[in-house]
């Protein structure tokens, strides 16, 4: 039986949650497919099936699969690919070897190669005699050193073809500050992001024991359950902002926001200038971040022009104007002279920093990665510091917090009114 004579009902092999991803791959919608989430989310199963089927359809395609450590290959991605080949009913068309570790498609000689990535530059030696590496898979993405290491591999491997499919899969690490968690929050037009967990899988695929274990952990340790089974970065207790809602904020939502707040934290270099525009809904106790501006070595006249060019229409909805760090009265005067409506110094009575930070911490902050990517990165990475013994220190770190300060300034008229009544 040849590949063309093999009939495969792919829709029965993947969970319905992955149908949109499969359709996007078929039409060549994206280059990068970032699949992440909790245990039992079927990420690896889908990727392995997609690679085998895709290679059998395209005789010029090959695949290379990476784990950070070579010793983990055999019992993880190698076994996963053998499972996919068997599940597709095409084992008779493939042969596998452990040394060197590879799977070979008999009709054409196409290869799936497995590598540990001890040094990214070694990927330059990876070659195939026929076709090119169309498929690239980084399993357990968070184990790698960071985006620079991943880029080095991609630059070495993604050559000689017209279309590439790069999979990156992982279970989100516990802290938002981890580079992999930050990576999937960065907007990229060439990337398809898909999050799944065991609730997206047909229950019979997982088995009753898996479901019972999940329910037991949910009852006994809800935070661990959220992290392990739902794929939520729940933190280690050092995250300063825990109530975050990271999602798209639509233009329709913004159009309904009747009151806006603006804040500025001055900076030049290396500290940046930070502007934030936000909305506070007291009924929901939610803060929505609408827009931002981050600049370095930029004159006041240029940042003022950006505000006026982009948000002149919002001035009627800003009852308190643009509230700026009081440490630079000359810059505030510049803004007034340049026409930034009602630019004023932030009021900083004793205890206001601590009160303002606690007030922000008690509210949900809604962040759209496309609207405010710099604020997202800063807020998710802002954590309490530890002493030399590993104990969490009280107080708020006074570094890498420029958008946090700008946000606090913008909403100071709201929380200072409450502070005076406390």
3D structure, described in words:
- The chain is α/β, with parallel strands linked by helices.
- Helix content is 34%, strand content 20%.
- The chain contains 15 helices and 15 strands.
- The protein has helices at 19-26, 43-57, 74-87, 147-157, 179-185, 203-206, 208-220, 222-228, 251-255, 300-311, 329-338, 352-361, 373-381, 402-410, 412-421, and strands at residues 32-37, 61-67, 94-98, 101-105, 110-116, 132-139, 165-170, 191-196, 244-246, 261-265, 273-281, 286-295, 322-324, 344-345, 364-367.
- The strands form 2 sheets. Strands 3-4-5-2-6-7-1-8 form an 8-stranded mixed beta sheet, with helices on both faces. It has a 7-stranded mixed beta sheet with strand order 9-15-12-11-10-13-14, with helices on both faces.
- Strand 3 (94-98) and strand 4 form a beta hairpin.
- Helix 2 (43-57) crosses helix 3 (74-87), helix 7 (208-220) crosses helix 8 (222-228) and helix 10 (300-311) crosses helix 11.
- The longest helix is centred in the first third of the chain and has 15 residues, at 43-57.
- The protein is elongated, with a radius of gyration of 26 Å.
- The model has no long low-confidence stretch (mean pLDDT 92).
Helix and strand pattern: HEHEHEEEEHEHEHHHEHEEEHEHEHEHHH
What's the alpha carbon Rg, rounded to whole Å? 26 Å
Quickly count the helices: 15
Largest sheet: 8 strands, mixed
Strand content: 15-25%
Oligomer state equals single chain
Low-confidence stretches: none
**Could you say which structural class the secondary elements and strand pairing correspond to?**
alpha/beta
Widest sheet: strand ordering = 3-4-5-2-6-7-1-8
């Amino acid at each position: 039986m040849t590949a063309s004579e093999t009939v495969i009902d792919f829709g029965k092999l993947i969970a319905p949650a992955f149908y949109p991803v499969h359709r996007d791959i078929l039409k060549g919608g994206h280059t990068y497919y970032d699949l992440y989430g909790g245990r039992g989310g079927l990420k690896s199963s889908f990727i392995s099936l997609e690679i085998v089927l895709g290679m059998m359809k395209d005789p010029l395609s090959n695949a290379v699969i990476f784990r950070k450590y070579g010793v983990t290959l055999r019992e993880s991605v190698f076994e996963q690919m053998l499972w996919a080949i068997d599940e597709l009913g095409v084992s008779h068309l493939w042969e596998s070897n452990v040394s060197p570790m590879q799977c070979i498609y008999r009709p054409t000689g196409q290869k799936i190669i497995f590598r540990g990535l001890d040094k990214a530059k070694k990927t330059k030696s990876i070659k195939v005699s026929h076709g090119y590496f169309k498929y690239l898979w980084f399993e357990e993405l968070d184990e790698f050193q960071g985006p620079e290491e991943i880029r080095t591999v991609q630059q070495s491997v993604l050559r000689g073809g017209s279309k590439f499919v790069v999979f990156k899969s992982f279970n989100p690490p516990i802290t938002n500050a981890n580079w992999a968690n930050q990576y999937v929050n960065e907007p990229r037009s060439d990337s398809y992001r898909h999050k799944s967990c065991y609730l997206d899988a047909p229950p019979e695929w997982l088995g009753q024991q898996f479901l019972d274990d999940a329910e037991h952990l949910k009852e006994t340790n809800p935070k661990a359950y959220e992290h392990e089974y739902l794929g939520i970065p729940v933190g280690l207790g050092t995250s300063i902002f825990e109530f975050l809602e990271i999602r798209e904020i639509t233009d329709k939502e913004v159009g309904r926001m009747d009151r806006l707040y603006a804040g500025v934290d001055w900076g030049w270099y290396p500290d940046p200038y930070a502007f934030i525009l936000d909305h506070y809904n007291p009924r929901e106790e939610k803060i929505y971040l609408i827009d931002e501006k981050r600049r370095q070595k930029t004159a006041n006249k240029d940042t003022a022009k950006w505000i006026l060019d982009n948000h002149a229409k919002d001035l009627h909805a800003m009852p308190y104007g643009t509230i700026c760090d009081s440490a630079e009265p000359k810059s505030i005067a510049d803004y007034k002279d340049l026409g930034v409506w009602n630019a004023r110094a932030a009021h900083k009575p004793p205890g206001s920093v601590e009160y303002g930070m606690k007030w922000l911490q008690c509210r949900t902050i809604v962040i759209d990665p496309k609207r405010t990517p710099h604020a997202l990165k800063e807020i998710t990475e802002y954590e309490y510091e530890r002493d030399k013994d590993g104990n969490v220190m009280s107080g708020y770190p006074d570094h890498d917090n420029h958008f946090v300060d700008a946000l606090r300034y913008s909403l100071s008229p709201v929380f200072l009114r409450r502070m005076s009544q406390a």
